[in-house]
């Protein structure tokens, strides 16, 4: 897969909905003199073409090469101004900032009382909606005005503003420390993945405890609690304590259901919290709770009051469908889940400019697992090749690793074992290069390498032996992650009991039902 340079202006134009394009043209029309402006002509041209081509722009005669960069920058700015005026983008945060801008203009005109009145209203809205950073900015501007103009509107005004500034500053510092810790833990997760040894565990534990600020939970607001739970969640994921990750993801989601207005103010955090809750439930195999959580999330997202924009729509597509696939894995209903393949393929094509390559590859891996569980190993290989042949997948190389391992088993099951030796060598080299060759992977590759030396009547014993060895690692804190990507034990049991792998997983799911 080659890297394609995408022009920022072109991507922005193509991201606009029909109503947003119509509003932009109305916005330009209101300016009167700009109806024939070059930037509007450039907008119309970019709207028509399917692929960004600078030569075709210059050939159109709209603009000379020396002026193109400035014209594009001007058009980009005008589109953003138009979008800012769109009612659909007028959330609380934008509205408060707009009031702050208006108050600043009034202050600069010397209309101090009007400015302070506007600031006081904006501050109340900001504090009510947990927008403490903006609230702090407002208080700072109020302090500036008070030092230059004695309003005498409220006794002890200086003391009141000083106390407000101190309290808001303390809360913002706490938010900053917790958000920094959460972000740093997430960065560690992307860079090294789960802990792989006792030494890794001790290092991460020390880092977490050293950077976690002291706090009184009763004094924390919504935003501070949100970052606190996020930090604990990433720490739990890193050390593979999935019961703890379930606990903190639940706290995260409960925050939103306790303060429902925050769902509509922070829909992205709401979606992500539910996704991590579902991921935790998947890891602990809590299928009944998983289904309830997924159905509740889908109901909220489908509600008429839930915010709708391109980013939210893309995230909702990603999280809902990834977890619908996971539900079929939990319940062993692989064939029933095949209807999702077309939905996911359509969604990937529709949202490809807003979903990163890694998450697209995760969806492909899940589709491959769906086909593997259904016994359609050729289609499984097709989707695995989309991952294996991707040369730009830099993060979470463990996905690439298990795609290769699953591909080996899919080739074996499909009877396409004539190139198995070459694939085995290639996969082994890849794992050595990654320095990520765990005991589970060693056992699986060793088994496949020896298949050629095993007589048909010895195969059952070979499956039994591999099953016994892998069961030793099923609950090992540093090896169990292999089973999160590939349920090799259920596959072995399907051969040992002569049952479809889907049936084995369904039987296990019924045993896990609580």
Q: Could you give the topology of this structure?
A:
Blueprint: H1 8-15, H2 18-30, H3 38-48, H4 54-59, H5 65-85, H6 92-108, H7 112-128, H8 132-148, H9 157-192, H10 198-211, H11 222-238, H12 242-258, H13 261-265, H14 267-283, H15 287-302, H16 310-331, H17 339-351, H18 357-374, H19 377-388, H20 397-413, H21 420-434, H22 439-450, H23 459-471, H24 482-485, H25 488-497, H26 501-512
Helix pairs in contact: 2-5, 3-5, 6-7, 6-8, 7-8, 8-9, 9-11, 11-12, 12-14, 14-15, 14-16, 15-16, 16-17, 16-18, 18-19, 18-20, 19-20, 20-21, 22-23, 23-25, 25-26
Describe the protein's architecture and organization.
- By secondary structure, the chain is mostly helical.
- The chain has helices at residues 8-15, 18-30, 38-48, 54-59, 65-85, 92-108, 112-128, 132-148, 157-192, 198-211, 222-238, 242-258, 261-265, 267-283, 287-302, 310-331, 339-351, 357-374, 377-388, 397-413, 420-434, 439-450, 459-471, 482-485, 488-497, 501-512.
Q: Can you summarize this structure?
A:
With 514 residues, the chain is mainly alpha-helical.
Structural class: mainly alpha
Q: Tally the helices: what do you get?
A: 26
Report on the biggest sheet.
none
Q: Would you count the extended β strands for me? A: 0
Strand content: under 5%
Radius of gyration: 28 Å
Mean pLDDT: 85
Helix content: over 70%
Quaternary structure state of the chains depicted: single chain
Global geometry = globular
Give unreliable regions as ranges: none
Rounded to the nearest angstrom, the distance between the terminal CA atoms is 44 Å
SSE topology string: HHHHHHHHHHHHHHHHHHHHHHHHHH
């Amino acid at each position: 897969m080659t890297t394609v340079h995408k022009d920022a202006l072109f991507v922005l134009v193509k991201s606009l909905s029909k109503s947003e394009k119509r509003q932009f043209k109305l916005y330009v029309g209101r300016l009167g003199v700009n109806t024939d402006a070059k930037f509007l002509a450039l907008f119309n041209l970019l709207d028509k073409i399917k692929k960004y081509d600078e030569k075709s722009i210059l050939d159109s005669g709209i603009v000379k090469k020396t002026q193109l960069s400035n014209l594009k920058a001007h058009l980009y700015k005008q589109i953003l101004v138009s979008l800012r005026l769109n009612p659909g983008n007028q959330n609380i945060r934008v509205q408060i900032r707009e009031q702050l801008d208006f108050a600043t203009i009034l202050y600069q005109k010397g209309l101090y009382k009007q400015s302070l009145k506007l600031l006081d209203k904006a501050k109340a809205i900001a504090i009510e909606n947990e927008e403490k950073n903006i609230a702090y900015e407002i208080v700072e501007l109020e302090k500036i005005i008070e030092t230059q103009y004695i309003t005498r509107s409220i006794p002890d005004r200086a003391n009141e503003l000083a106390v407000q500034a101190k309290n808001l500053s303390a809360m913002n510092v706490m938010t900053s420390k917790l958000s920094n810790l959460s972000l740093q833990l997430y960065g560690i997760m992307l860079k090294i993945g789960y802990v792989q040894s006792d030494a890794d565990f001790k290092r991460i534990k020390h880092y977490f405890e050293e950077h976690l600020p002291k706090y009184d939970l009763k004094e924390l607001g919504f935003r501070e609690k949100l970052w606190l739970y996020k930090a604990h969640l990433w720490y739990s994921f890193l050390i593979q304590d999935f019961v703890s990750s379930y606990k903190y993801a639940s706290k995260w989601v409960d925050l939103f259901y306790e303060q429902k207005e925050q769902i509509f103010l922070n829909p992205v955090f709401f979606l992500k919290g539910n996704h991590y809750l579902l991921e935790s439930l998947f890891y602990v195999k809590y299928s009944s709770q998983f289904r309830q959580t997924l159905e509740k999330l889908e109901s909220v997202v489908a509600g008429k009051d839930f915010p709708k924009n391109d980013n939210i729509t893309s995230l909702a597509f990603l999280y809902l469908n990834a977890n619908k696939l996971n539900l079929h894995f939990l319940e062993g209903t692989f064939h029933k889940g095949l209807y999702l393949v077309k939905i996911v393929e359509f969604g990937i094509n529709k949202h490809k400019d807003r979903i990163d390559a890694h998450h697209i590859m995760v969806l492909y891996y899940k589709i491959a697992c769906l086909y593997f569980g259904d016994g359609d190993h050729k289609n499984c290989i097709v989707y695995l090749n989309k991952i294996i042949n991707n040369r730009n997948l830099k993060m979470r190389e463990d996905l690439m690793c298990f795609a290769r391992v699953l591909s080996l088993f899919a080739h074996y099951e499909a009877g396409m074992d004539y190139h198995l030796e070459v694939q085995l060598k290639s996969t082994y080299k890849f794992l050595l290069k990654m320095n990520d060759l765990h005991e589970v992977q060693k056992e699986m590759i060793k088994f496949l390498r020896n298949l050629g030396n095993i007589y048909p009547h010895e195969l059952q014993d070979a499956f039994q032996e591999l099953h016994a060895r892998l069961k030793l690692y099923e609950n090992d804190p540093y090896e169990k992650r292999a089973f999160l990507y590939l349920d090799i034990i259920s596959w072995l049991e399907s051969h040992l009991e002569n049952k479809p792998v889907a049936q084995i997983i369904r039987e296990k799911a019924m045993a896990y039902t609580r």
